[in-house]
Amino acid sequence: MKKIRLGVIGTGMAWERLHYPAISELGDKYEIAALCNRTFKDAENFAKKINLDIKNVYDNLDEMLKRPDIDAVDILVPIEYNYEISEKVARAGKDFICEKPMASNMDDAKKYLELSKKYNVKIMIAENFRYNEENNIIKELVESKKIGDVIYFIRNNVSCFPCEMTKDTFAAAEWRQHPKFEGGAFLDAALHDIAAMRHIFGAVQCVHAFGKPQPHDFNPYYSINSNILFENGIIGQYTYFPSGIETQKPPVGFRIYGTNGQIYLEDKSCGIINIFYNEGTSEQIKYTPERGFYNELLNFYNALNGTEEISVTPEVEYGDVKMVFDILKSISSKEVIYVDTPPPFKDIKLKEIQESTAPYIQ
Ligand SMILES: NC(=O)C1=CN([C@@H]2O[C@H](COP(=O)(O)OP(=O)(O)OC[C@H]3O[C@@H](n4cnc5c(N)ncnc54)[C@H](OP(=O)(O)O)[C@@H]3O)[C@@H](O)[C@H]2O)C=CC1
Ligand SMILES: O=C1CO[C@H](CO)[C@@H](O)[C@@H]1O
Question: In ligand 1, which atom is closest to the CA atom of 84?
Fold first, then answer.
C-alpha cells in the first residue's frame, strides 16, 4: 500500500517525543503531509526541522481538513479538546488516531462511540499501554496459566507530580497543573494503568476506592487506593499516588500472584519481567520498553491497509475511561461501583475458583 499521508493536530510534547519518533521509524508507511497547531509558530518550527514546506502548516483546523490529499489525522491535543476535535475530524470523513483519553467526561465518551458508524471512518485511540510489549507478554503469561490460576495482584503507580512541574516534562503543562476536566492526573495518567489491568485481566465487575483529598489542582487526591474484582474472579489492589516525595520514590510495582508462582514487573521501563515459581526456580523475560507507540502506529497503518483490525477502538477505550470515573464515583459515594457488569453481582463461579486454588491453599 502507498504511504499514509498524515495530518497532525497538536504539535506539542506527545507529538515531538512520542509519535514523531515512531512515525520516523515507520518512514516507509507514513508521510507527514501537514501540521496544525493552535500556536502557529510551534508547528512552523517543527515543520522547519523536518523540511516540510510552510504552506502545509496551519492554525486553522478546518482549512487543513479540507485537503483531499490527507489520508488520515493524528490528534494530540489537551484532553479537554479530544472529543470536540475528534468529532470535527470524523465529520470531515478522515480516518484518525486520537491520543488517550477519548474524552474528558462520560457524556462525551458515550457520544464518541457513535462517530465511527455515523461518519464511516476508522478510529484508533492511542492507548500505548495496550500496545506495550510488557503488557502483551504478561497477558499471554496470565492466559496461558504460566503461574497457574491468578489469585490476586497488586499494582502501584508512585510519582511526584509537583517535583516535575518545573522540569521539561509533561507535568509542566498548564492544562495538567490546572485541569479543566474532572479527575486531573488520575484521568490523564492512571488511565494507562487501568488500561493495562483491563487488557491483562479482562472486564471488571466492580471497584471500591478511597482517596485522601488534597488542595492542589493537578489531582483531586494525594493518593487513590482501589480494590478491584474482575469478572473472572481475580481480585487486585491498585494505588495511584502522584504526590510522593521524589527522594522517597519507591519503585512502581506490578506483582501478580498465582497458584504456581508470581509475575513481577518492577517498572514499565526496566526491560525485564521476572517469574518466580513456588518450587524455587525463576525465569526472566526481556522486552523492549515503550514499544506501544510504534506498535499502535503500525496497527493503524495495517488497519487502513485492510490487513488487520484496529486493536484499541473507542469501544475498548470506553471501558477504561468509565473505570476512571467509576473509581472517582466510588470515592465520593463510598459505595462499590459496578464497572463493566450491571448489578446484581454476576455469578463468578466461586466453586470453580475455590477448586482451582485448593492446591495453593493446602
Ligand atoms: N500516551 C502517552 O504516553 C501520552 C499521551 N499524551 C496525550 O497527548 C495529548 C497531548 O498531550 P501533550 O502533547 O503532552 O500536550 P501539549 O500541551 O504539549 O501539546 C498539545 C498541543 O496541542 C495544541 N492545541 C491545543 N488546542 C488545539 C487546537 N484546538 N487545535 C490545534 N492544536 C491545538 C497546543 O497548542 P498551544 O501550545 O498553542 O496550546 C499544543 O501544541 C493529550 O491527549 C495527552 O493525554 C501525552 C503525553 C504522553
Ligand atoms: O499519557 C501520559 C503519560 O503519562 C504522563 C504522566 O506520567 C501523562 O501526563 C501523560 O499525558
Answer: 29
